[in-house]
Amino acid sequence: MSEHDEAVDTDRQDSNSDTPTRIAIACQGGGSHTAFTAGVLRTLLDEWGDDYELVGISGTSGGAFNALGTWYGLVTGDAERARTILDGLWTDLAADGVQDRWMNSLVTALSRMESAGFPLPSISPYQVLGPEVGKQRIREVLERYIDFDAIPGLCDRQVPELVVGTVDINAGVFETFINDEVTADAILASAAVPNLFEAVEIHGHLHWDGLFSQNPPVRDLMWLPPDRKPEELWIVQINSQEFEGEPETLDVIADRRNELSGNISLNQELGFIERLNGWVEDGTLPADKFQQTSIHRIQMGKRFHCSTKVDRDPAFLDELRTLGDQRAREFLESRADT
Fold first, then answer.
1. In the chain, where the domains are located
2. For position 329, what pLDDT does the model report?
């Protein structure tokens, strides 16, 4: 945390000690690694009590699954329902049965070989049936827990903002789907990795994985009305921010390249917020209309090979969720000490 963020936090604690802190949570994408985010969110929902009020949540790719599950559970029930949905989503997305587990092991092994430089044939997802079968399975799992037809009606009342990130490949622009715009197709588009899945058509345009755009969406969370604007933004960050030494082997180079590509848009968006904070602090923007937002990251803090982003082994997903639980508890403890 920067000195500026610490000052913002101190001022907030002095003036709003009896009211919950308004927070927004942004969930970075990263395939199977986003099971970590499910563990983080489960624990936050269970442990934060009345100290925090969720005013917005966003996500990209697998992070969008978590954002949607959390949002839907909260607005149709409570924290316990949200935790149940998160558990159900990741249990059902895990590799199940002999054939599915065999295919998962094969895909993970091929991904590891490719990152190590082995020459492997490349096949377009439009040339084989498997990817669309996988996409249909994801849709069925989502619809098992989420009534997408009910979402517009749920947005009629004051509920947290829900934001899902994609990229419009026809217009060549980032596109977010907000609140009642979030459909099963929007979630699938956010997770449509180009070399794995066909693009998803929405409103006459084709969409790919949001990892190419806002990973995760942040700016949309900042446009809430003044009384709902987040005082704190919590980033659940899948990709490591820092790296010690120099990547030299092909697989390590692939890992670091993957991490950097996933963090570029995030750091750009956070830089925008930090600039706004500075303008509020120096009086360029009026403090009665603009709210400073301090930024905090909940990071995985452990590296896994980039090939495991496609690994749906149940034991691996459980390991990630357990790690998420641990990091969330550490984060809340650190917040309590400030």
1. 21-164+214-337
2. 95
Residue with tokens 């750091």: 267
Q: Tens digit of pLDDT for each residue in 99-113?
A: 888 887 877 777 777
Q: Is 224 exposed, middle or buried (0-12, 13-18, 19+ CB in 10 A)?
A: middle
Structural contact between residues 237 and 28, judged by C-beta atoms closer than 8 angstroms: yes
Question: Tens digits of per-residue pLDDT, 58-105?
Answer: 999 899 999 999 999 999 999 999 999 999 999 999 988 888 888 878
| Whether 239 contacts 262, CB under 8 Å | yes
Contact 305, 116 (CB under 8 A): no
Provide the token pair at 70.
């959390």
